[in-house]
């Protein structure tokens, strides 16, 4: 009998410009998860690539080397490791920022 564990999803609190070419992503801390996966795209509906896997203790991530004048889209999901297997939450709503 398998029990599917679906971790609680997080929410993106803010996207802020940081320095010349970076964006700081701040999200809500979720208790009981193993970490967070951050995805980025230059399109709102597709092309998302995982850019970072963050430890459960952190609540922000700074993405560097972005191009000026371009719009970037971000989404995050939480991950929970249960007996060697990872389970993922649903994604946050996509948020965008123009760099």
Describe the structure.
With 99 residues, the protein is mainly beta. 0% of the residues lie in helices and 52% in strands. It is built from no helices and eight strands. It has strands at residues 12-18, 22-27, 35-41, 49-55, 60-63, 71-82, 85-88, 95-98. Strands 3, 4, 6, 7 and 8 form a five-stranded antiparallel sheet that branches. Strands 1-2-5 form a three-stranded antiparallel sheet, with no helix packed on it. It is elongated and about 50 Å long. The relative contact order is 0.33.
What's the quick description here?
This protein has 99 residues and is an all-beta fold.
Short descriptors:
single chain, 52% strand, 99 residues, five-stranded antiparallel β-sheet, mainly beta
Q: What does the overall shape look like?
A: elongated
Q: What is the chain-wise order of helices and strands?
A: EEEEEEEE
Query: Helix proportion of residues, in percent?
Result: under 10%
Strand content: over 45%
**Number of helices in the DSSP assignment:** 0
* Radius of gyration from CA coordinates: 14 Å
Q: Give the averaged pLDDT, no decimals.
A: 95
Report the biggest beta sheet as strand number plus sense, adding barrel if it closes.
Answer: 5 strands, antiparallel
| Global structural class | mainly beta
Question: How far do the termini sit from each other?
Answer: 48 Å
The count of strands amounts to 8
- The low-pLDDT segments are none
């Amino acid at each position: 009998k398998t029990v599917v564990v679906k971790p609680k999803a997080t929410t993106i609190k803010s996207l802020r410009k940081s320095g010349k070419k970076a964006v700081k992503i701040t999200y809500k801390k979720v208790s009981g998860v193993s970490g967070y996966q951050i995805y980025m795209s230059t399109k709102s509906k597709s092309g998302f690539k995982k850019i970072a896997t963050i430890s459960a203790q952190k609540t922000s991530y700074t993405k560097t080397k972005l191009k000026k004048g371009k719009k970037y889209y971000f989404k995050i999901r939480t991950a929970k490791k249960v007996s060697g297997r990872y389970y993922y939450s649903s994604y946050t709503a996509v948020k965008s920022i123009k760099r």
